[in-house]
Write a structure and sequence with these properties.
The chain has helices at residues 3-17, 19-29, 47-61, 65-84, 94-98, 101-112, 142-155; strands at 120-126, 130-136, 159-169, 172-182. By secondary structure, the chain is an alpha+beta fold. It has two domains: 3-62; 84-182, H-NOX domain, CATH 3.90.1520. The chain has a four-stranded antiparallel β-sheet with strand order 1-2-4-3, with helices on one face. A hairpin with a 2-residue loop joins β3 (159-169) and β4. The model has no long low-confidence stretch (mean pLDDT 90).
Length: 184
């Protein structure tokens, strides 16, 4: 996993749990981490390091892993959009942006971040107000993706209804998201 995600998780923890609890979480996770130094933005690190820190976060905050991943996804979207810069002006609503994740956004991520392995999204059905997407990733972070969808809708000043169905596929969970968009 890219160091960028580790950096965002640390920022999230500092802002939502405080710097002291963030330090405690890292201290508890440290013995199990593959990489012992700081996780730097452009670096690539073992997925298990992220999941170890997430496990300690869940324990410290007393919430489920799914709730933590969803909240983190909501937090991340505007931060990631800011890094995408002026190119965000090319998209005018949530649906329009989500339709380019696989073929534009993730292609750019792979160009800019050597070793990046973003999830795959497949688009199944769409209308003007809805979209069905399949999320496929060995990391099984479908709740993080769901949080990103909510963060995306908030970014564009819209509402979104998310329904999901988990499917087992080759030892991992694929997730079918049915998204319905609204304008407040």
């Amino acid at each position: 996993m890219k160091g960028e995600v580790f950096n965002l998780l640390e920022q999230y923890l500092v802002e939502h749990a405080g710097p002291e609890l963030c330090e405690q979480i890292h201290a508890k996770a440290a013995p199990e981490l593959e990489y012992k130094g700081p996780h730097i933005g452009p670096g690539t690190y073992e997925d298990r390091d992220f999941f170890t820190i997430l496990k300690e976060t869940v324990s410290a905050l007393g919430i489920s892993a799914d709730a933590a991943a969803l909240a983190f996804g909501k937090y991340c979207f505007p931060k990631l959009a800011a890094r995408f810069g002026d190119r965000m002006r090319d998209y005018h609503n949530t649906r329009e942006f989500l339709l380019v994740i696989q073929d534009v956004i993730h292609v750019e991520v792979k160009k800019l971040m050597s070793g990046a392995r973003p999830p795959n999204f497949y688009y199944v059905d769409q209308t003007e107000d809805s979209l069905t997407m399949i999320y496929d990733s060995e990391r099984n972070l479908h709740c993080f993706a769901e949080g990103l969808f909510y963060g995306c809708a908030a970014y564009f000043g819209e509402t979104i209804e998310v329904k999901k169905e988990l499917l087992a596929y080759q030892g991992r969970k694929c997730c079918i998201f049915t998204l319905t968009f609204g304008r407040p």
